[in-house]
Design brief:
alpha/beta; TIM Barrel; Lyase, Ornithine Decarboxylase, Chain A, domain 1; 2 domains; nine-stranded mixed beta sheet; eight-stranded parallel beta barrel; 12 helices; binds pyridoxal-5'-phosphate
Length: 440
C-alpha cells in the first residue's frame, strides 16, 4: 500500500489569528460586566470556527456516518447543547461523561461508550439503554455476553483492536504501539478475535484508535487499513459459517493532529479524507456504517485563553511573567514541555496587540506552587507590563477537561462568541463556595 504524503496545501483555516483574538478580546473587555476584575483568566470559544469544523467534517463523510465527538476533549455542557443541534453524536469514556451526554439530550443511538475500565454496572446500564459499546478486552466481551443473556438490548457492540502499527512522536498520546493499555493487540490474537466474532452474533462492530497529536497521518491510515483487513477477513469467515449478520459498523477512533503553530500547515480534514478514500476505499462503498470520534480536531483551535499579567520580574538577562494560567489548565504543556506548544500573543489592558521586541527574553510562569508551572521559556515578546494580557492560543481541547485542582484555584469563566463581537457566558467563574463543596 502506498500512502501518499499530503500536499500541504492550505484548504481549511487551521487556527484563529492573533488579530482575530485581540479584536474579540477588545470587544469583550468593552462589554459591561462581561469581564470583571476577579476574572484573572477567561477562556473563549469561537462558535463560528467550531461550526465550520463540524460542517466540514460532515460534508466529507457519507451522510450515514455518526460523528461521535469526544467528550473528554471538551465536556462543557453548553458546548454539548450547541453541537447536538449540528447533528453530531458523542463519544464518552466514563459513566459521568455518559450522564453529561444524556443531560444534553443525546439519545442512545448517538452515543458511543469507550473505556478500558467499564464496570459491570456501567456495562449493564449502557446495554439496557441501547448504547453502542466498544469492548476493550476479551474479558469485557465475556461480561457483556453475561449481561446480554439476561437483557434484551439494542446496543451495538464492537471490539477495540490495537493494530500495533507503532507510536508517534508523543508517547502519552500514542495508543497503537506493540504494547498499549488499550484494546486487543492484533498480532498475537487474530484467530481469537475472529473466533469471538463467530461465537457472538451480537458482536458486529469493530473499533480502532491509533493516537492523537504527534501521530503522523500515514501511521493513522496504516492502522485503520490493518483493522479494515481484519474486518474483511472476519466477514469472509462469518460468511463461511453462514452467519446471518456480518460486521456492519467500522469505528475510526479519533486522532487527527492539529496545528499549534500559527504558520504551520497541518493535514487538513479534506486531505485526511482523501488519504482514507485512497487507501481504505471499502469504508466508503456502503458495506460499513462509519463512526468517527474526533476531539482535538474539532475543539483545539476553537478556544483560547486570556490570562492577566500580575507581575513582571525583570532581571539582567531575562524577565519572568507571573500570570494566571499554568499547569492547572495546561497540564500537558507543563509536565511534558517538549511535546506541546501554545503560541502566546501579548495585548494591553484594552485588548490592543502589542508590538516590538523586548531586549530580554521571557519566561511565562503560572500561579501554582511548583517550579514546573511554566508554560513557555526563551520567548521573544514585546515589552510585557503588569495589567497586560497573554492570549494563549489553541487551548480548546484537553485543557479544562484536564483541569488540575492544585492550589484550589478557581476554574475560569468561559465565554463563547460569534463574529468577534457577540458574547455569551457559557460557564461562570467557579465560586469559592463551589470550590468548598468540591473539597467537602
Ligand atoms: C477512544 C478514543 N476516541 C476518540 C478520542 C479523541 O481523539 P482526538 O482528540 O485525538 O481526536 C480519543 C482520545 O484519546 C480516544 O481515546
Amino acid at each position: 500500500m502506498a500512502i501518499e504524503k499530503p500536499s500541504g496545501k492550505k484548504l481549511i483555516k487551521s487556527s484563529l489569528s492573533k488579530e482575530e483574538m485581540s479584536k474579540a478580546f477588545g470587544f469583550a473587555l468593552s462589554q459591561p460586566d462581561l469581564i470583571t476584575t476577579e476574572d484573572t483568566a477567561v477562556i473563549f470559544y469561537d462558535l463560528d470556527f467550531l461550526d465550520d469544523r463540524i460542517e466540514k467534517l460532515k460534508s466529507l463523510f457519507p451522510e450515514t456516518t455518526l460523528h461521535a465527538l469526544a467528550v473528554k476533549a471538551n465536556p462543557l455542557t453548553k458546548i454539548l447543547a450547541h453541537i447536538i443541534q449540528l447533528g453530531v453524536g458523542l463519544e464518552v469514556a466514563s459513566l459521568p461523561e455518559l450522564y453529561l451526554a444524556e443531560k444534553a439530550g443525546f439519545t442512545a443511538d448517538n452515543i458511543v461508550f469507550d473505556s478500558p475500565a467499564k464496570t459491570h454496572d456501567e456495562l449493564e446500564y449502557a446495554i439496557k439503554a441501547g448504547i453502542h459499546i466498544n469492548a476493550d478486552s476479551f474479558d469485557e466481551l465475556e461480561r457483556i455476553a453475561e449481561i446480554l443473556e439476561n437483557h434484551e438490548s439494542k446496543s451495538k457492540i464492537g471490539l477495540r483492536i490495537n493494530p500495533q502499527v507503532g507510536t508517534g512522536s508523543i508517547k502519552s498520546t500514542s495508543v497503537a504501539g506493540v504494547i498499549s493499555k488499550f484494546g486487543v493487540p492484533l498480532n498475537d490474537n487474530t484467530d481469537r478475535i475472529i473466533a469471538c466474532y463467530v461465537k457472538y452474533n451480537w458482536l458486529r462492530s469493530i473499533h480502532v484508535h491509533i493516537g492523537s497529536q504527534g501521530c503522523p497521518v500515514p501511521l493513522i491510515i496504516d492502522g485503520i487499513r490493518k483493522v479494515l483487513n481484519l474486518a474483511n477477513e472476519i466477514n469472509s469467515c462469518l460468511k463461511q459459517h453462514s452467519a446471518t449478520q456480518l460486521i456492519d459498523t467500522f469505528d475510526i477512533g479519533g486522532g487527527l493532529p492539529v496545528s499549534y503553530y500559527p504558520d504551520t500547515e497541518p493535514v487538513s480534514m479534506m486531505q485526511y479524507h482523501s488519504m482514507l478514500q485512497e487507501n481504505c476505499n471499502e469504508l466508503f462503498d456502503g458495506r460499513y456504517k462509519l463512526i468517527t470520534e474526533f476531539g482535538r480536531y474539532i475543539y483545539a483551535n476553537t478556544g483560547w485563553v486570556a490570562s492577566r499579567v500580575e507581575y513582571v520580574k525583570r532581571e539582567k538577562n531575562y524577565n519572568i511573567v507571573m500570570s494566571h494560567i499554568g499547569a492547572d489548565l495546561l497540564l500537558r504543556k507543563c509536565y511534558h514541555p517538549d511535546d506541546w506548544h501554545h503560541q502566546i500573543t501579548v495585548v494591553d489592558s484594552r485588548g490592543n496587540l502589542k508590538t516590538g521586541t523586548d531586549k530580554n527574553k521571557y519566561i511565562i510562569a503560572g500561579p501554582l506552587c511548583f517550579a514546573g508551572d511554566v508554560i513557555a521559556k526563551d520567548l521573544d515578546l514585546p515589552v510585557v507590563n503588569e495589567g497586560d494580557y497573554l492570549l494563549i492560543h489553541d487551548v480548546g481541547a484537553y485543557t479544562l477537561s484536564m483541569w488540575s485542582r492544585y492550589n484550589s484555584r478557581q476554574m475560569p469563566k468561559v465565554i463563547s462568541y460569534r463574529n468577534t463581537n457577540t458574547f455569551e457566558i457559557i460557564k461562570q467563574r467557579e465560586t469559592k463556595e463551589k470550590l468548598f463543596d468540591f473539597w467537602s
